[in-house]
């Protein structure tokens, strides 16, 4: 039991083609593993009947199309609760979307189903993707399948795609979708020892994904290998007439670009990422990554990204500003939750009560920050200034790439996974600092990938981040593959949740 | 910039989020903490820098202004907390 659920996408693809296993068998194994994993809180909805029907259809397709069937055909996946799936409860882990069943399908999930992937269910996340620990979820936090040695305290799987990370790391599904606005794919991937890719802004359609900050949001794959990320991104990417910001660029064959040969590539090491108080083991991991890429024949170059320090403050103006606008639609009229009204209450009371009861504290805080920085008298001082700083941050990266840098290596997170309840209680900024290495990539619209590269002294996984040139996810994943091969991270968490 | 109780009340109302009287001080403190953090932006020399409009250098696509979808009011109303005779229902708006 659990053997099939523990396959990578590429292993399952090969065995499905050879007729050694069926999609139905993998799906049943995943469903059994999910049932045993309630303590992880990774799934918020299991769509078992839908999964079985989709698996049968995939088996029929594999039988008739054979080698020509798409790579994702018959692969069971989990879907972050941010993606609209027709007829399936979609709440963005918020009370305000209570009971919402979209009458339409997001482009990403539609593409995955067209490629024959099997839907297992919806995955837990921070409410509206606002958080770095999964603790803002209305459903309660997902839990990291990893525990520190000799310590049974539940750890965060990271956020906001924490359920996705937990499910993939615990071998409940072969892969999952995530979304990344400031690090929400890469940080949880690093905390759980899996691979997480945020594509270039515009590579993947945002249509049908509940919006947080539209100029930053991008969906991507969360998998147990770099090859799997390439396979899954292939199925998710591409221009979409329904998303005017999706790019008209052709989607290359990402997997074919994975040669592992990175001789002569120039890898930048940004000095500004050596932040004050960085734990020694993160520093050591970073150095180990540098040595691995050197070993692969890459040239290591010290670079400067001078505005790095201002990325988080710019993000915490721009993202809340966009969120305050995007979340204005939750008014208790068209879908989701409406507060009980008192006699005499008018429409303003309906809005204010509905939003007070429907949104969690962090979401309210960000909507109000956004409202403030967009309000008359502060728009120029905060919002316009942040957008100018964003231009400078993008220029920093452009100058590096123009000087011949092919990819940039940094730590993915400033620490390993922390305990649930440990951070951000008194001061929201403490939690925000988690995304210090990932946020600049969203502000610059670049592709970034987190690769599991080692473990800390307590045995917890640590990740390294690679940042690539725009539209060069294939090249980026090739560097990631060279890193993955040398890091040789093959540890899996002990399944304590099966108790 | 620090936010006082009255500003917190005003922002909450602009955002149409009800906040209890006794929660206003905590809210003001939390909002001030975030604004204190973003205050660092004031150190940056942004003279002559264009504010970013689009992160990828692209012009937004246009299409003909015509109806390409729709015609299913039942689906649209299916998720409404309150609907009647093909309409969303809200509390009385005008006297």
3D architecture notes:
The complex is a heterodimer of chains A (499) and B (95). With 499 residues, chain A is an alpha/beta fold. Chain A is built from 15 helices and eleven strands. In chain A, helix 2 runs antiparallel to helix 3, helix 5 packs parallel to helix 6 and helix 9 crosses helix 12. By secondary structure, chain B is mainly α. Chain B is built from three helices and two strands, in the order αααββ. In chain B, strands 1-2 form a two-stranded antiparallel ribbon. In chain B, a hairpin with a 2-residue loop joins strand 1 and strand 2. The radius of gyration of chain B is 22 Å and the shape is flat. The mean pLDDT of chain B is 93. The interface between A and B is large, with 72 and 52 residues.
Explain the layout of strands and helices.
The complex is a heterodimer of chains A (499) and B (95).
Chain A: H1 9-17, H2 23-36, E1 43-46, H3 48-65, E2 76-80, H4 107-114, E3 118-123, H5 162-169, E4 175-180, H6 186-192, E5 195-198, E6 218-223, H7 226-236, E7 266-270, H8 280-295, E8 299-303, H9 311-326, H10 347-358, H11 361-374, H12 379-402, E9 407-411, H13 428-432, H14 439-443, E10 448-455, E11 461-468, H15 473-487
Parallel strand pairs in A: 2-3, 2-4, 7-8, 7-9
Antiparallel strand pairs in A: 1-3, 4-6, 5-6, 5-10, 9-11, 10-11
Helix pairs in contact in A: 2-3, 5-6, 7-15, 9-11, 9-12
Chain B: H1 5-14, H2 24-38, H3 73-77, E1 83-84, E2 87-88
Antiparallel strand pairs in B: 1-2
Helix pairs in contact in B: 1-2
Please tell me how large the radius of gyration of chain B is.
22 Å
Helix content of chain A: 25-40%
Structural class given helices, strands, pairing of chain A?
Answer: alpha/beta
- How far apart are the first and last residues' alpha carbons of chain A, in Å? 15 Å
**What percent of residues of chain B are in strands?**
under 5%
Order of helices and strands of chain A: HHEHEHEHEHEEHEHEHHHHEHHEEH
